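Chapter review: from sequence to fold.
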Amino acid sequence: MEGRALTDQSGNPAPGPGEQLADEKELLRRYAKDPSPRVREELVDRFMPLAKRLASRYAGGAEPFDDLMQVASVGLVKAIDRFDPARGTAFSTFAVPTITGELKRHFRDRGWSIHVPREVQERILKVERALSELPARLGRAPTVDDIAERLGVTPEQVLEAMHASQGHHAVSLDASPAGSEGEEPAPLRERVGAEDLSFETVEYGAAIEPALAEISKRDRTILHLRFVEDLTQSEIAERVGVSQMHVSRILRNTLEKLRSAVDEGESS
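The token string follows.
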């Protein structure tokens, strides 16, 4: 039984692999001599599967695949424009590093909100690819050690890449989350952080500093032992050499002086 001949969409016999390759070489030669938009468009259609295959290597991370395809297409057009058939190099040999370089530049220059070294960026892509591929092979979620073994790196380098991958996207301080219905959500800058009570301590310390300078060294020592070293009045009495009642009276009188100094500072 004779095999049926393959045909193209017009019903004409489809070219075999050798004829198609010769046709592509002829198109590349024609474009090198006369770079017409029509020939370039035809070349882009012919080699788009190559661009798609390279873009898929970087899929699975935070970047949408459509964006990766757009970047890969730009790299393909650049490869077509720069390719010189007279050098005798296969187009794919020239196009692959050109398209790959465009994809890597995209991640390095546009896909990062903070600066991440290029070596770490490339390791992040490998880690993300391993995270998407290993579950099917292992039948479970991969561990850090699994990923490190797959990539031939140390677990520390895998953890570094995972941590650095958070630099892909930053959140604006003006961004507002989706709040409950009827409520105006507050921007992020109003919801992060907390009041630092130490500012009040600094202000209080500045207010009582003149009063502290006027009390005796012994009384300042008793204050230090009580409120810094957190000793009891009995322990302070034993340390200073006075009675516990006397320590209590010194603390009460000294604190009253300090409160008065603060009140005078606020009223002035």
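Two observations follow directly from the output. Residues 5 and 68 are 37 Å apart (CA to CA). Confidence is low (pLDDT under 50) at residues 1-10, 12-18, 197-201.
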